[in-house]
């Protein structure tokens, strides 16, 4: 059955709520309104307002109350309306949720999911466009998941809810309705922490996730038809913990690596991956490890032309691929 | 102006040194204090750092050659000059500069398959030889190599492997092998492999190798192996060896160590049994002074200072760093010295003076499970103590005229002595003191 990324996430939430009555959703306008993006639409009618609960406009409460509920034995799914709004809850996420298992010597877990729509391309400007994965990928104890396809999204939101520890679940808001794909009717699983080769190739490796995965796949096709070169495209799916085995296996095979993310270049997750490759696949490299990322400017600009300039395009990726191939 | 690098004086009595290996090649940049080469003396290997920041311009003495202290062995160019064009750089620099960069994978493949990259046409940016170029070259070479036999069949060792294609490698040269998990792709880090390769390349002094059959392999002597061989033969030919053995009950030492280990740990010291054996040895040397001596034609040289060597096993041999004035040290001091010397021995950071001047040696062969051994004397000393494995055994203990069976941690101490200097009875007297100290060990001795 074909679904959008958004519909797949909703289907995953629906199945998880049907299977386990401890699962509940908590966030701004998630109930009657179904969330600003309508991800939770219909769930309040189906499961009642006690399990799809509107929160005050206070992210620290959304996450803080969810932590309490998780410790109490429930399975909260907190929604941060836009990833840009997550900062007031950073203390609860980093200092409490992520450390619960460690500070209680393994006695207490914090089985909760924080969903957050991220990324640009919808004219959201400064407060509705940020990519936040690098900040949270730095935090031990927290898992950071960012699916790119409807197939992965449905299974991964269920895996995140089932996980005994806190998971930050990042949903690219431009991909919500843009990306469609087949989702099986029957049950299937995608584990957290496992990347996937979405396109096999032998000449160079692209490592990416989210909306950029789809751009990268398109650029890889163009490279194949224009230059006869085959790029292998690795979809991270989970940003923490990184699936180093899949990354290294691919780079060792091709000898060249390009890491792509929409987030700004400096301090981005691309630097971590580049370091891993340099450390563990050095002898297999046939060219410099490269990154393609957003510009180091404070935020997404307002003007549509500048937003366009900020975001990476298929052509930007193709240019970089050609440069790496020619090295 | 190039700056001369001279063979350093690595110890009071060291007059010459052998170039172990050059850590930099001509044309390579070097930082001040960065290791430039390894020098091997008959005692230790040590690294020699650069005295300035700049570039290695010339190597004058190749690896394996021995020269007197003060001999100019290389020349450096200072950073300011290396950067400007006023100084004509040495030839290898130009050679490197004119070539497109070599990627890590190409460097590795070239090393593994003994390729000369000048033979390969580069298709990458600026004419760079790419991984694909190497793969194509190897595929082509393997298809042509199968036609020509390359090694004589009479079993003679091929001394220049670069000159021929390794026939064993030929069938594995096809591109499928270049998958990461295929055999022929060792996972070990490159530095280690390089190290092995360099060690194997230490030039042999011309020797006839007899008895090398077709199924045999000649493993060249490392400087350490050669030194051990010389010292051992020399010792056995010089001194008539006699070994005497005593058994020691270590239950007090074991209890003492268990009680004080954490204390020592807090002071940054790992309390090893070796420290106790050194302490007991010092006491025995004090009481039976003649054991702390050397035989000379004019008489027996009695040493009044006690410098105890402790043998440390290394992957490719062993070395005996010396605890100077061991009788000045407490158990803590001895443990600290043993920790420090053993650790630096393994890192090859000992100074030549630290492995010289010993008046007595201890070898702890028990760490490998050996119960007792008959060690060879470390010349020109008069004796060596072998310490066996500590094992729990059922022993008969007598107290107040009553015999009883007890389980005790037991250990054999063996003393090998130079019979020219010491007689068996003297050796037994030495061991008796050591045994008494160890069996009656108490906290009071701290």
Structural overview:
The complex is a heterodimer of chains A (327) and B (446). Helix content of chain A is 39%, strand content 20%. With 327 residues, chain A is α/β, with parallel strands linked by helices. Chain A has two domains: 2-182, 3-Layer(aba) Sandwich (Rossmann fold); 196-326, Rossmann fold (3-Layer(aba) Sandwich), CATH 3.40.50.920. In chain A, the strands form three sheets. In chain A, strands 3-2-4-5-7-6-12 form a seven-stranded mixed sheet, sandwiched between helices. In chain A, helix 1 (5-19) packs parallel to helix 7 (150-162) and helix 10 (244-254) crosses helix 11 (269-280). The longest helix of chain A is centred in the last third of the chain and has 17 residues, at 211-227. Chain A is globular and about 60 Å long. The model of chain A has no long low-confidence stretch (mean pLDDT 97). Chain B folds into three domains: 3-97, RNA polymerase II/Efflux pump adaptor protein, barrel-sandwich hybrid domain (OB fold (Dihydrolipoamide Acetyltransferase, E2P), Beta Barrel), CATH 2.40.50.100; 104-151 and 159-202, no CATH class; 225-445, 2-Layer Sandwich (Chloramphenicol Acetyltransferase). Chain B has helices at 79-83, 91-97, 104-112, 131-145, 190-200, 223-238, 251-266, 273-287, 331-346, 424-439; strands spanning 3-6, 16-22, 29-30, 35-40, 45-49, 54-59, 66-68, 72-78, 241-249, 293-296, 299-302, 308-310, 312-314, 317-319, 322-323, 360-363, 383-387, 391-399, 402-418. In chain B, helix 8 (273-287) crosses helix 9 (331-346) and helix 8 crosses helix 10 (424-439). Mean pLDDT of chain B is 80; it is low at 85-98 and 146-207. Chain B contains ten helices and 19 strands. Chain B is α+β, with helices and mostly antiparallel strands. In chain B, the strands form five sheets. In chain B, strands 9, 12, 15, 16, 17, 18 and 19 form a seven-stranded mixed sheet that branches. The chains are: A alpha/beta (327), B alpha+beta (446). The A-B interface holds A 249, 252-253, 255, 282-287, 326-327 and B 103-106, 108, 124-125, 128, 130-131, 179-180, 190.
